[in-house]
Amino acid sequence: MDVKDARPILAEERRQLVDLRDEAAAWMEETEATAQRARDLEALATVARTRLADMAPAHQAEVLALLDVRVTITGLVPKPKLGLSCSMAEWFKAAGRKVPSELTDEAWAAAEPIVKAWEPPYHRLRPSRLMSDAMFYKARTGCRWEDLPERFGSWKGIHSRYKTWRNCGVWGDIVSALPVDCPGYRPVPELNLVPPFRVEGRVDPRVLADADIQEEVMPGETGPPALSRYRSVLGEPESGTPRRIGDLDCEAWRWPVPLWPGLRFEVLAPAAGGAVWNEWLVRAPGAEPPALHTVEDLTPWSCTVDEAAHAFAPARPLEGTAPTRWGLAFTAPDASGVRREVVAEFTWGLLQRTAVSGPPP
């Protein structure tokens, strides 16, 4: 086979390789987008799992709406297991008491002398206030001991401490020292046996564009037509202000966020109409911004993109791994004053995580 005959064969093989490369790149992109959506959902689900029981009903509804929860029943209702009642729940029912919320400083000041009298001198036990909050959390939610949030530490130690306090009378003295009823107190939840089920969801569908949504401008509306879908689910915006970006005139529209009263959901769109350019969470006017001075101040959910960029200027924007994500690269001092290189990741404009490395070269 001479060179002339080989050329078309090689060209066809090259075309097939290019197609395979493009297909693999598209597959990788789709896989990463799916994984990112899962991580975003996990971050929001973590808030729901660790804080939902202590939220007001309106805030609970807000979190569940953001998760777009869908429940599928996968089996029959189990038969009740006799003789396995929770001794803590039975104690509160017998005492006719509601379960306290997480202890305030004032409430702990009332209970602490009782705990201190029980604690042995020079002990190395886990903090009793944390243990008490864990016990009250279990009683408020009705969860199993092994399902206590990780922030409380090992559930076995908490369970053992509760049994010790109950058997020696310290538990009753602690609860008696607290107010009978205060905001956040709840009755012991009743045991409701439910069938096995599967829970599915996705992050914040209310503000994501749906290809099947028909956008209509309602009579009397003002602002770009692209905002109509936001009005249909969020209501009228709290404010709308003109903003100029380079040579373009824009409008920034903001809605309150019940879950975070100190934040607003901002949508930026061209004043002349057209597609929305940006949508994220920003600090509400008049709300106290976080104090950002060191790397240690950059905790999850603590600040917005704009706040981090101003606190650690100059910051270099990074391309996000999904439309709802942003990144910033900057340097910031640690607690000892040594400057570190930081890459911060944001979801819907709120800080999610940071990667901190050594001093800049």
Jot down its keywords.
361 residues, Beta-lactamase Inhibitory Protein, Chain:B, domain 1, alpha+beta, four-stranded antiparallel β-sheet, 4 domains, 37% helix, 10 strands
Secondary structure blueprint with pairings:
Elements: H1 3-51, H2 57-67, E1 70-73, H3 87-95, H4 105-118, H5 128-141, H6 155-168, H7 170-177, E2 197-200, H8 228-234, E3 239-245, E4 248-256, E5 263-270, E6 278-283, H9 305-311, E7 316-318, E8 325-333, E9 339-347, E10 350-357
Antiparallel strand pairs: 1-2, 3-4, 4-5, 5-6, 7-8, 8-9, 9-10
Order the strands across the largest sheet as they lie in space.
Answer: 3-4-5-6
* Class inferred from helices and paired strands: alpha+beta
**DSSP, total strands:** 10
Count of discrete domains: 4
Report how far the terminal alpha carbons are from each other. 56 Å
Helix content: 25-40%
